[in-house]
């Protein structure tokens, strides 16, 4: 099933699909497990600098997993060059890979994309992506790890 903007809004408004498992830890445990930059993005919802991040210009075949819990998030086949400064994807690997939440921070109205398993902040999703789904998942590299085949 290809997700569309209406699906994202419905999930953010009513209920996200259940993930296959949950990972919950204290902030101290996350701080010990993650690199400082990963912790700032995944747990404190910071944003890394545009264009100066690990996966902005990487197009190798592989799978992108959550840097926090290792859950599969995106396939490299869904990655495209959006000229946004961050890795951009058209679709998650599965309907329940991402949890959606409305984000009114920084004077903007956006939809936040979080790992559905560990609730780590990944980035945001926008309705200005390519056809057919029209979605652009703008994701921080620090929240991802690329697993090569």
UniProtKB/TrEMBL annotation:
<dbReference type="GO" id="GO:0006979">
    <property type="term" value="P:response to oxidative stress"/>
</dbReference>
<dbReference type="GO" id="GO:0005737">
    <property type="term" value="C:cytoplasm"/>
</dbReference>
<feature type="domain" description="MsrB">
    <location>
        <begin position="27"/>
        <end position="149"/>
    </location>
</feature>
<dbReference type="InterPro" id="IPR011057">
    <property type="entry name" value="Mss4-like_sf"/>
</dbReference>
<keyword id="KW-0560">Oxidoreductase</keyword>
<dbReference type="GO" id="GO:0030091">
    <property type="term" value="P:protein repair"/>
</dbReference>
<dbReference type="InterPro" id="IPR028427">
    <property type="entry name" value="Met_Sox_Rdtase_MsrB"/>
</dbReference>
<dbReference type="InterPro" id="IPR002579">
    <property type="entry name" value="Met_Sox_Rdtase_MsrB_dom"/>
</dbReference>
<dbReference type="Pfam" id="PF01641">
    <property type="entry name" value="SelR"/>
</dbReference>
<dbReference type="GO" id="GO:0033743">
    <property type="term" value="F:peptide-methionine (R)-S-oxide reductase activity"/>
</dbReference>
<protein>
    <recommendedName>
        <fullName>peptide-methionine (R)-S-oxide reductase</fullName>
        <ecNumber>1.8.4.12</ecNumber>
    </recommendedName>
</protein>
